[in-house]
Design brief:
Strand order of the largest sheet of chain A: 1-2
Largest sheet of chain A: 2 strands, antiparallel
Mean pLDDT of chain A: 85
Largest sheet of chain B: none
Structural class of chain B: mainly alpha
Low-confidence stretches of chain A: none
CATH topology of the largest domain in chain A: ABC transporter involved in vitamin B12 uptake, BtuC
Distance between the termini of chain A: 13 Å
Number of helices of chain A: 15
CATH architecture of the largest domain in chain A: Orthogonal Bundle
Order of helices and strands of chain A: EHHHHHHHHHHHHHHHE
Number of strands of chain B: 0
Number of domains of chain B: 1
Strand content of chain A: under 5%
CATH superfamily of chain B: ABC transporter involved in vitamin B12 uptake, BtuC
CATH class of the largest domain in chain A: Mainly Alpha
Shape of chain B: globular
Mean pLDDT of chain B: 84
Number of helices of chain B: 12
Number of strands of chain A: 2
Helix content of chain B: 55-70%
Helix content of chain A: 55-70%
Largest interface: A-B, 50 and 48 residues
Order of helices and strands of chain B: HHHHHHHHHHHH
Strand content of chain B: under 5%
Number of domains of chain A: 2
CATH class of chain B: Mainly Alpha
Distance between the termini of chain B: 69 Å
Shape of chain A: globular
Low-confidence stretches of chain B: none
CATH topology of chain B: ABC transporter involved in vitamin B12 uptake, BtuC
Oligomer: heterodimer
């Protein structure tokens, strides 16, 4: 009989290996799923993981990797700080939407003025929008002890209704012939989040994502606040004795993750998506949860995990158009990844040992 | 705007229908949490139940078989949660989220060929005489059987938790798993059964949405009801009858806002549609001050070293 034996210290090697093992297991079982759907599993996996990087049209897909990866990394970095401290913000999707609405609103308010300061103001607006939306669960948790998981999630549905409301009303394009959705930022130079180098996919959101990774790395490894975050997650009692203020930590972690999610929303709506519309959000806020865990809540890991997730999005789209693989299959594939990751994580904290069955 | 169009009798009858999915999912989760496990995957299990129930009902033509399949589907999905939290000892919050994300994807995949299909009607109770009574008839005696089953389930859970040995053991495991283990109770086995019960209830609740409440299949149709069910358990302070009360309250709000939309009240549709979620938050705030009734071992990982 196999018994579990708790390791005195989490295994460093397994901690690094589990994401890889999880990806391999997901490829295998994902392949089985694709086979069950009547597709050639090897071809499907190759299409998802190889085609976007080295295939015939990779010159088109590679920039997309940055476009899709940036919001995921940006959001996941914020979430990871909270997750590390046991603060569960799962409403990033709502903060992403609110950031986009506020940021886009700031930009549209200046229309048709052209000035250098409009885009920076939009960025600030986006961050503030997301921050404010995340401060609702943060404040309620600090003041009343309300569960932040449920509140932040409920606010996603509220934000979706807000989005529907503004795309049909407040921010609707007055010259849009009655169609829902705002003006397109592509035709408004001062507010458009264009590629910094034409055709590279490198827009300001990508820059922000890289800055966030570096910032988080420094914060966690070189700063007292980062140490407090780690301490609270690993040993809450010790943290309390060390004088960590839990309320401040909650406000900081939720506020920062909200601001980053809001930024991601603003960069998306003013760039790749182009306009505020009812369904411009595609679930990055939820996928970012998978990214944060897959990256082991470590900034560099999240960068890699975000790239991998972006790959499955792009590869999934290719497989959809070329092989007729249903879009939902990719969603299942991404969900599977989180499953295997959590399952294999057992090996980080426990050792498997063969033992004779004994009476307890 | 014409508020007189809103018929109070029909309102009450339809709020009972709107409350049933919530009620089923919440009473299941209550048992799970009483055993000391926090399963945030209710939404995922509900949506899997919704599609399983819908697909099987359409294929077999029998709603009874459909609801059975839904309960089975929810329970099978909950086994994944069992695997993660009871076998691999993973974090329950993360595992619950994984379950929801996976369930939403899988249900979309399974439901592709069922979009736009109309399911057979669910049979309704019809007692000649009683069902035809004014006011009382439509409210009490002319619903589908699952609705009555939901209420009976509340009573059953209450009785089992309060009066039976099984209920006592379940609560002991949830309050202090180390002590329960020391007394020789199989903590993991009891929790696995509780989680599967929760999954089956969530599955039933989901199928009620796709077969009775709406009735059709659309992707992501549970729209947060699983999460509201989680909030409802907190609202009910882990007491079965309060789940019933809470579910009817939320059902009432949902139905009322739909009625107001239809009556053309001056409030924009979007604001009415977000009201159930906002009210859930408000209720959570009001009730979160008192955490004393929560099971003491809720969300903690159990690992017997000996």
């Amino acid at each position: 009989m196999i018994v579990l034996e708790k390791r005195p210290q989490p295994s460093q090697a397994w901690s690094l290996a589990t994401p890889l093992v999880a990806v391999l297991a997901t490829m295998f079982f994902g392949g089985l799923l694709f086979a069950a759907l009547g597709k050639n599993p090897v071809e499907a996996i190759m299409t998802i993981f190889w085609e976007p990087l080295f295939g015939e049209f990779s010159f088109y897909y590679r920039p997309q990797l940055l476009v899709k990866g940036a919001p995921l990394v940006l959001i996941a970095i914020g979430l990871s700080l909270g997750f590390k401290a046991g603060i569960w913000n799962i409403g990033a999707e709502g903060q992403y939407i609110m950031g986009a609405i506020v940021g886009a609103g700031v930009g549209l308010a200046f229309y048709p003025l052209e000035a250098w300061y409009i885009f920076p103001l939009m960025v600030i607006g986006g961050a503030l929008g997301g921050w404010a939306w995340a401060m609702i669960p943060a404040f309620l948790k600090v003041r009343f002890g309300t569960n932040e998981i449920l509140v932040s999630l409920m606010l996603v549905y509220v934000a979706e209704q807000m989005l529907a409301s503004v795309s049909l009303g407040l921010l609707k394009n007055p010259e849009g012939f009655g169609f829902p959705g705002s003006r397109n930022f592509q035709s408004y130079a001062s507010a458009y989040n264009a590629d910094l180098i034409e055709g590279s996919g490198m827009h300001w959101g990508v820059v922000a994502a890289f800055i966030a990774v570096i910032f988080a790395y420094v914060l966690l490894n070189r700063h007292m606040l980062g140490f407090h975050i780690r301490l609270t997650g690993e040993a809450p009692r010790a943290a309390r004795f060390a004088g960590v203020n839990p309320a401040r930590l909650i406000l900081f972690c939720l506020g920062l993750s909200g601001a980053l999610a809001g930024l991601a929303g603003l960069f998306e709506v003013s760039g790749p998506s182009g306009q505020v519309s009812i369904d411009f959000n595609v679930g990055y806020g939820f996928t970012a949860i998978i990214v944060a865990f897959l990256g082991r809540l470590h900034p560099v890991g999240i960068l890699l995990a975000g790239s991998l997730m972006a790959l499955t999005y792009i590869g999934g789209e290719i497989a959809q158009s070329e092989m007729g693989l249903p879009a939902a299959a990719i969603q299942v594939f991404q969900g599977m990844l989180l499953f295997f990751l959590l399952a294999f994580d057992l090996l980080t904290n426990y050792r498997l040992r063969l033992a004779l069955k004994e009476v307890a | 705007m014409d508020l007189s169009e809103i018929n109070p009798v029909l309102l009450i009858a339809s709020l009972m229908v709107a409350a049933t999915p919530l009620l089923l999912a919440a009473i299941g989760e209550l048992v799970v949490e009483k055993a000391g496990v926090l399963n945030l995957g209710v939404e995922g299990m509900m949506i899997i139940g919704a599609i399983c129930g819908f697909a099987i009902t359409v294929e077999t033509g029998s709603t009874f078989v459909g609801f059975l399949a839904a309960a089975l589907g929810g329970a099978v999905l909950s086994l994944l949660f069992v695997l993660l939290t009871q076998v691999a000892l993973a974090n329950q919050v993360a595992s619950g989220l994984a379950l929801t994300l996976f369930g939403l994807g899988l249900s979309a995949l399974m439901g592709q060929s069922y979009v736009g299909v109309k399911p057979p009607d669910t049979p309704e109770l019809n007692i000649p005489g009683l069902s035809d009574l004014p006011v009382v008839g439509p409210i009490l005696f002319s619903h589908d059987l699952v609705l009555y089953f939901g209420i009976a389930l509340i009573a059953a859970v209450w009785a089992v938790l309060k009066f039976t040995r099984v209920g006592l053991i379940l609560r002991a495991v949830g309050e202090n798993h180390d002590a329960a283990h020391a007394l020789g109770y199989k903590v993991i086995r009891i929790r696995v059964l509780a989680i599967m019960f929760g999954g089956a209830c969530a599955g039933l609740g989901g199928a009620y949405i796709s077969l009775v409440r709406v009735p059709q299949w659309t992707e992501g149709m549970t729209a947060g009801i699983g999460w509201i069910a989680l909030a409802l358990v907190v609202f009910a302070s882990w007491k079965p009858w309060r789940v019933l009360l809470g579910a009817y309250l939320f059902g009432g709000i949902t139905v009322l806002q739909l009625n107001l939309q239809a009556a053309g009240v001056a409030i924009p549709v979007e604001y009415l549609a977000m009201s159930p979620y906002i009210i859930t938050i408000l209720v959570l705030v009001i009730l979160s001050a008192d955490k004393s009734s929560a099971p003491a071992s809720l969300g903690r990982i159990f690992h017997a070293s000996h």
